[in-house]
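tl;dr need the bound structure. longer version: we got a ligand (manganese (II) ion) that a collaborator sent over and nobodys looked at where it sits. i said id run it. heres the input, straight from their email, havent touched it
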Amino acid sequence: MAGRNLPDNPVRNPQAQVLGCSRRRCPLLFDLHTHSNASDGILSPQALVSRAKDNGVSHLALTDHDTTAGLVEARQAANDCGLELITGIEFSTQWQGLGVHIVGLNMKTDSSALGEAIERQKTARTERGEEIGRRLAKAGIPDAWHGAQALAGQDGVVGRPHFAQFMVNQGHVTSINSAFKKYLGAGKIGDVKQLWLTIPEAVAAITASGGNAVLAHPGKYKMTRTKLRRLTQVFADAGGQAMEVVSGNQPANETRALADIARQFQLHASCGSDFHSPAQAWQDVGRYSPLPQDLAPVWALW
Ligand code: MN
Ligand code: MN
Ligand code: MN
C-alpha cells in the first residue's frame, strides 16, 4: 500500500471507526485482526472477505495464527469485491511463561525471514499437538492428535479448539467449553506449554519482511498495569511499532488505559475485531469501539 493515497485521513476522521456508521459518510473502516479456517476461524478466507465487505470494512487484514496460508484466496476474493486486503499473521510468542500474541501487518509474504519463523512455529505446534494427544490418550481419549489434524484440514493450523471439537464429536464431552474445563484449559491434563518464538524473534521476522509488528489485544493478558508496561517495553525495544489499542467491543476504560501506554511508548495504534466465527455475534468482523483520535493509526506507516 506504500505510496497509495488513502481517500480520507482517518486520524481526522475518527468517525470512520464508529460502529454502524453508514458507508457513504464513513468510507474507511479498518479491521486489522481476523481469522479464517486457515487457522482456528470458521469461515474460508473468501467467505471472511465477503462478510467483511457486507459489514462495511474497507481495509481488512487476515491475521491467522502462525500461518499466511489463507492470504492467496483472501487476496483473490478482495480483488473481486473491491476491498483492500492487508497481509497479516498472528504469531504466538512466550514471555515470562505467558502467551503473548504479536500481529504482523503489511509484510511481504515471500520473505525468507517470515517463512523461517512460520516453519519454526509449525514444528513447535506439531510437537505440542503430539504431546497433547499422548496425554489425552492416557486420560482415555485415543487418537485426538490425528482427529484434531483432520478437523484443521490439510494446510490448517491445529489448535486446542480442534482438540475440543474432536472430543465433542466423539462424545467424550458435551461442549467445547466443557472440553476446555475438563481437559484443555490451564492446569488440566492437556495444557501443554511449548516453545514458541520469543517476542524479539517474532518482531524481527515481521520487520525483516517489511511489515509492522503490533502487540495484540493487551487487555486479554489480564496483567497488572506495571507488568503490561514491562511487556510493552520489551516489545518496543525489539522494534515493535504499534499496539492494538482496540480489540473488539472492549470497555472504554480499557481503551483509555491502553491508549495511555501506547502514548507513553510512542506506539502507533491498531484496531480489529479478532473475528473467529459468525456465531460469536459480539465479535463480528468490522465491529469494535473507536480508536482514540489523538493516536496515530498503524496504517499511517503504510
Ligand atoms: Mn484464535
Ligand atoms: Mn490472539
Ligand atoms: Mn486473534
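gonna send this back to them w/ a short note. The beta strands are 30-34, 59-62, 84-95, 98-105, 197-198, 212-215, 242-247, 268-272.
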